[in-house]
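input
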Amino acid sequence: LFLYALFLPLRNNISGFILLVLLFFSILDFKKNKDLISKAIKNKFFLIFISLYFLHLLGLLYTSNFKYAFKDLDIKLPLLIFPFLLLGRNINKSTIDFILKGFIIGCGIGAIGALSNAIQLYIQTGDMSKMLYEGMQFIMHSSYFALYLLFTIAILFFKLDSKNSLFSRRNLTIFSLIFFFIVVIIFLNSRAGMLG
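output
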């Protein structure tokens, strides 16, 4: 799950591959542990997420644009896969922290990549507008990336250590990262990021 979170803001095809590998191992767990199936049927969150995906699948009956419909089903595939991945796992606070660290690192790498791409375009063209919006679309559309960065900022705010001084090394590092991500959101020039 750490690798999935790490590659989610970087490359969707890599995170999709990781998701399939995780699903394969989860299916093996289901074959070994028959109690997981009865747990799944009794778990309301499992059933809710699975039902949401099947509602989208039913929506295929009312569409004429199958190309978009299948793309939408592909995007929503984690609604179907994640309940199976998480069902047999013992997920505690340290596991969640580890997964969130992966997401933060992935967003950091993506932000550095987007800034590098924008600087390279600016050097090549001399056009300052390449430092904004279009030039920052390194991995994905700037609105999506801005939302990822906003989520990262929210995670970082929760990671602030209230027990130590505001100027402790840990808190200063977190504030520096928050500032960096805010600057990247401004360069992304995304209305979705600004609204958040």
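quick obs: The chain is about 75% helix and 0% strand.
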